[in-house]
Specification:
The structure holds 2 protein chains of 2 kinds. Chain A has helices at 17-21, 23-37, 78-82, 120-124, 150-157, 168-176; strands at residues 61-63, 88-94, 103-111, 130-132, 147-148. By secondary structure, chain A is an alpha+beta fold. In chain A, the strands form 2 sheets. Chain A has a 3-stranded antiparallel β-sheet with strand order 2-3-5. In chain A, a hairpin with an 8-residue loop joins strand 2 and strand 3. Chain B is an all-alpha fold. Chain B has one domain (76-351). Chain B has 13 helices and 2 strands, in the order H-H-H-H-H-H-H-E-E-H-H-H-H-H-H. Chain B has helices at residues 17-50, 66-76, 87-104, 122-130, 133-143, 147-178, 183-192, 203-206, 208-224, 236-239, 249-274, 291-316, 324-351, and strands at 194-195, 199-200. Chain B has a two-stranded antiparallel sheet with strand order 1-2. In chain B, strand 1 (194-195) and strand 2 (199-200) form a beta hairpin. In chain B, helix 9 runs antiparallel to helix 11. The longest helix of chain B has 34 residues, at 17-50. The radius of gyration of chain B is 21 Å and the shape is globular. The chains are: A alpha+beta, B mainly alpha.
């Protein structure tokens, strides 16, 4: 009832003759759809045009080298352990030239059929050696091809200008002592 | 009046009559497959445009060869025959659905001197054949031995039978005015009669009843061809795909071809009955008797028909599906009385000589 507090009765509008004939409404709808024919299209011609990806985009995980082309990964295997779908396989080996870092990965595989692009590997990496790239076109003709090996991962990651230069002091120290680089050259 | 057979262009009058007929048949037989493939492409492009998309544009110029790619896909797909079906009827149904669409093409008057069969009972014949298509759908639905297909088939037959009435009654108005069942005669009447001595008397303009008949006809045509907003037999959201849910490969393609061929025939019929067929403000009389006249007339006819085909697609991507009871109510309680009354008014006007062919 309309006199109940807090309630308001809404009158159902009476249908006009035009409403009941339906056809005016249909013509109106057709005018709307016809106007869309000439509207600007939202389609992106994909392989030619591509999205501009945001900074936080999580694509294929990739290994990066520092600005002196050195392999940053020290094969600590933290990413291997943290990886929820267990997509990462690392076989460490001794790093020649020996510096403060003792190990480097002999094998670094990411099975892209398993990877869920969660980005935990990037978060956990103490050496800032693994980053989620903006690469999203992951294709292959076989299961083997879908396992990305170290060379491919470095190819995707490339060189990353590291703002922190966290090994800078150690490097300089090592050079001063004539031990060469604190890290061996990239084994790529 | 003329020394050549009235259905043969003058330039080609040296050809024996039977040879010209064979050429006609050959040309007309090419039309359905070409047009259907064009239509499938148009359907996808127009739907895309209406939804602010681009649509298939990769295969060939403007994506025109998309249908060829579709066809190749259909041909190479596995022809799955489910185990529970009635094998004979299951195989016959797609052909039954397609043949009426192709046969009715032979009755359409593309131009004054270009049609396969110039029957005096052309309109009757056309209705008789095109209504056979319901057998293909019904048998396909039944033979599939699947609940979705069966319901789709039953719906289709109920719907097509219901709307055939109003379709016929709307066309009867045109018959009253033009005084002939011959489709070519109808066009000739519309092209030669003048409203106020100026406008060609296309049935849609002749009197308000003609417009009403046209509206009834086009709506019934949508129901007859199972197109949205009356696509009850398919109704993806309710019946998966309706009567052809169990079909695959070329059998499915035949259903598709039949449906689109029926659409073309219905559009052609609307052009012929209501929009003056091959006539366009006297343009149809240019270069009388030459092959150019035939070409111009065919062009005019197809332009009008293609417009209606566009409307078919346009409506499909505008309106949602009717409910089944709404469909039946519209057919039996609205259109049937309306078309009967319309026919009476038309008969009255015709008897009193206000319009129509001279008695």
């Amino acid at each position: 009832m309309s006199d109940r507090p807090g309630y308001r009765t809404v009158e159902r509008p009476a249908l006009t003759l035009a409403d009941r004939l339906v056809f005016p409404a249909i013509l109106k709808g057709m005018a709307i759809t016809a106007s869309h024919i000439f509207e600007k299209k939202v389609t992106m011609q994909y392989p030619e045009e591509k999205w501009t990806l945001p900074e936080y985009y999580r694509g294929v995980p990739s290994l990066v080298m520092d600005d002196e082309n050195r392999e940053k990964c020290v094969a600590c295997s933290l990413c291997e352990f943290v990886c929820p779908p267990r997509a990462i396989t690392i076989v460490p080996e001794e790093r020649p030239g020996g510096g403060r870092e003792e190990k480097q990965p002999a094998v670094f595989d990411i099975d892209m059929l398993r990877c869920i692009f969660c980005g935990y590997c990037e978060e956990v990496c103490p050496e800032e050696a693994i980053f989620m790239s903006k690469e999203y076109e992951v294709v292959g003709r076989s299961r083997e091809e879908m396992v990305f090996h170290k060379d491919r991962l470095y190819e995707i990651g490339g060189v990353r200008k590291d703002p922190h230069r966290k090994w800078k002091n150690a490097d300089d120290e090592a050079r001063a002592q004539g031990r060469g680089h604190g890290h061996g050259p990239a084994q790529v | 009046m003329t020394t050549w057979p009235s259905w043969q262009p003058e330039v080609l009058s040296f050809l024996p009559a039977w040879l010209w007929k064979v050429i006609c048949i050959f040309l007309v037989l090419q039309m359905p497959p070409i047009l259907v493939s064009l239509l499938v492409w148009a359907e996808r492009r127009v739907s895309a445009w209406i939804q602010d998309r681009v649509g298939p544009n990769r295969v060939g110029p403007f994506g025109l060869l998309q249908s060829v790619a579709d066809l190749v896909k259909f041909v190479f797909k596995e022809d799955v025959v489910p185990g529970q079906v009635n094998r004979v009827l299951y195989s016959v149904a797609p052909a039954l659905a397609m043949v009426p669409g192709l046969v009715t093409f032979s009755l359409l008057p593309f131009a004054e001197r270009f049609m396969v069969s110039d029957l005096d009972s052309g309109l009757l014949m056309l209705f008789a054949i095109s209504s056979l298509a319901v057998y293909g759908i019904q048998i396909g639905g039944w033979a599939s031995n699947s609940k979705y297909a069966l319901i789709g088939g039953v719906r289709a037959s109920a719907q097509i039978i219901s709307y055939e009435l109003t379709l016929g009654l709307a066309a009867a108005v045109v018959v009253l005015f033009t005084g002939s069942l011959n489709l070519a005669e109808m066009v000739r009447w519309q092209s030669e009669t003048r409203i106020l001595g100026l406008l060609p008397a296309w049935t849609i303009f002749v009197f308000p009843g003609g417009t009403v008949a046209f509206v009834i006809f086009i709506t019934s045509a949508f129901a007859e061809t199972n197109r949205l907003p009356f696509d009850m037999p398919e109704a993806e959201s309710e019946l998966a795909a309706g009567y052809h849910v169990e079909y695959s490969s070329m059998k499915f393609a035949l259903f598709f071809l039949g449906e689109y061929a029926a659409m073309i025939v219905m559009s052609g019929l609307m052009t012929t009955l209501f929009l003056g067929g091959w006539s366009l403000f006297g343009l149809e009389r240019v270069m009388e008797g030459t092959i150019w006249q035939t070409l111009i007339q065919t062009g005019i006819w197809w332009a009008k028909t293609l417009f209606f085909l566009f409307v078919f697609i346009w409506i499909r991507w505008t309106l949602p599906r009717f409910r089944y009871d709404q469909l039946m109510r519209l057919g039996w309680k609205v259109f049937l009385p309306l078309s009967l009354a319309n026919l009476l008014v038309a008969a009255w006007m015709r008897t009193w000589g206000m319009w129509g062919a001279s008695a």
